């Protein structure tokens, strides 16, 4: 996809000094933007693919930025207060830009569909939060629900696509959302994100020894390395990632036209490349 430039276009809205310094933005949803772009290019004649991909990416970035807002009570330092305020404002700003872009292009129906998808995303997040707060969720259900949340916005674009492509679109959106969720959980195991309330956390609470479950519930995550090693969480998650990537590959290979199949496969290859490079580097160090 040599003509793909959504991250560059989004930079007009994200590259502000105060936002970059204090907001600590979430990753740009590049794989989702690419998938939407290539499906619109091959299966939605007359639809402005860049406009839709940019608008959906800004909405997603706004939602993800709001998810990073610290909701804990208590005193904060000046930098923490500023970061919290900038995250709220940045999330609102990104969300407002999608409306401006689509309204300016007369895409009122797309605004309606995206607005409904935002409501559905927030509903799913609330359901998940309540289940997690009550401790009534298993590791697999946690991944499934997180994946559904990630795919909501993209599913709202189904009606723009050629009817013959809609089933493949729905399956690939679900597969990509699951793959991204598992990659995020991999980062949690590697210490790049909180272990508490991650897939690994729920796995131990569901399958761990009674004593370990009690320790997690009473004392928090403690040293995540203990649980990761004892229950082989890294290997378990690697297997899940491999299965998820293989599933996406199979689904992509079945798409017609072949050019779309190739572009879809390349998206996941690019998504997995950093993890593959990191794994290769680790293997080299161990030899």
- DSSP strand content: under 5%
**How large is the count of helical segments?**
13
Q: State the order of secondary-structure elements, H for helix, E for strand.
A: HHHHHHHHHHHHH
Shape: globular
Name of the CATH superfamily: Farnesyl Diphosphate Synthase
Radius of gyration, in Å, reads: 20 Å
Instruction: Kindly state the number of beta strands.
Output: 0
Structural class: mainly alpha
Terminal CA distance: 37 Å
Q: Major sheet: size, sense and barrel closure?
A: none
**Helix fraction bin:** over 70%
CATH T-level topology: Farnesyl Diphosphate Synthase
Verbal overview:
The protein has one domain: Farnesyl Diphosphate Synthase (Orthogonal Bundle). The protein is built from 13 helices and no strands. By secondary structure, it is mostly helical. Helix 7 packs across helix 8, helix 7 packs antiparallel against helix 9 and helix 12 packs antiparallel against helix 13.
What's the gist of this structure?
This protein has 287 residues and is mainly α. Helices cover 77% and strands 0% of the residues.
Which helices and strands appear, and what pairs or packs with what?
Elements: H1 6-14, H2 17-23, H3 30-43, H4 49-67, H5 78-104, H6 108-134, H7 139-155, H8 166-189, H9 199-207, H10 210-219, H11 224-230, H12 233-253, H13 258-286
Helix pairs in contact: 1-4, 2-5, 3-4, 3-8, 3-13, 4-5, 6-7, 7-8, 7-9, 8-12, 9-10, 12-13
Features of the shown structure:
single chain; mainly alpha
